[in-house]
Amino acid sequence: MRDWLDFQGRIGRRTFWLAYVLPIFGAEILASLVDIGLGLYTMAPFTILVSLLSIWPGLAAQVKRWHDHDRSGWWVLIQLVPLVGPIYALVMIGFLRGTPGPNRFGPDPLGDAAAMPATPPMRA
């Protein structure tokens, strides 16, 4: 659980999607269904609560993905640029591979083998 709240280090794309985005998205949907089931259409207290609770882990995940690109966590603020910012952030942290090998934020989350360029086998 501490890793969910920690802003240090790096995470890969797979961890970003499977350990952060999907659970938060699922919790949001579940909370919305509970609110609808209880007839709470206007206030939606469960949805609001889940949204507030997901801010910190969501920011932590984004910061770690920016770290994977060897960029400061302050790059999360790029999303405040209308239209272009959120799209750029989604592409960078959601779909593009980070810096191969270790960087100033820690070791490659994909391991040392990921830092090695793929070379075709030599034939004699």
TrEMBL record:
Q: What cellular component terms from Gene Ontology apply here?
A: plasma membrane
Indicate yes or no for the key word Transmembrane: yes
Transmembrane segments annotated in the record for this chain: 16-34, 40-61, 73-96
Record-linked InterPro entries = DUF805
Q: Signal peptide: which range, if any?
A: none
UniProt keyword terms in alphabetical order? Membrane, Transmembrane, Transmembrane helix
What is the top-level taxon of the source organism?
Answer: Bacteria
Pfam families hit by this protein: DUF805 (PF05656)
The name of this protein is: DUF805 domain-containing protein
What's the source species for this entry?
Roseomonas acroporae
